[in-house]
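In this section we walk through a basic example: taking a raw amino acid sequence and producing a predicted 3D structure, encoded as discrete structure tokens. The instruction is simple. Fold the sequence below.
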Amino acid sequence: MRKLKTIEIARLTNEEFQKAEKMPLIVVLDNVRSLLNVGSIFRTADAFRVEAVYLCGITATPPNSEIHKTALGGEESVHWEYFDTADQAVNQLHSKGYRIFSIEQAEGATMLDNYEKETTKNVNTDNQPAFPPTAIVFGNEVKGVSQSVIDASDGCLEIPQYGTKHSMNVAVSVGIVMWEMAKHYWKNR
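The resulting token sequence is shown next.
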């Protein structure tokens, strides 16, 4: 094997990215305080070609040099919107027909590895797309997703963890969940 050079990797331009099919997935950031985490999330959102990132509350917005350090331009390719609160974002998404899942350790949460089976068991496949429009909410690095947002969600998904901490960096969590969603979405294309 030979490592590919950057110029050998087939990459979309920002213009091509804007026109390309997107996974109908919106990432909602509920008071994420680290600008480096926000940038990393934009970069991952670009990689999986998600529809948008919603920035809420204290979550910083582009343009911002600290976000750009880890986004490396992802903040320019991925559509984003700002909301005063994650509750506002979730209400708007519900009104547009999105399923909302908070990513949180909560009573009755579905483990992420059971996501596809659990979240599609009550879906009428004749009338629903294989991957209906979905939003995933990630919370503050210390406090997590706001309880009011959890209450407004259609469910909670939890990332299985087997160590002692039972806590992950929010940008890492976003990457794990996006990968799981992308496997489900892009395999049906």
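Looking at the output, two observations stand out. Residues 110 and 117 are 10 Å apart (CA to CA). The first strand starts at residue 23 and ends at 30. In the next section we compare this with other chains.
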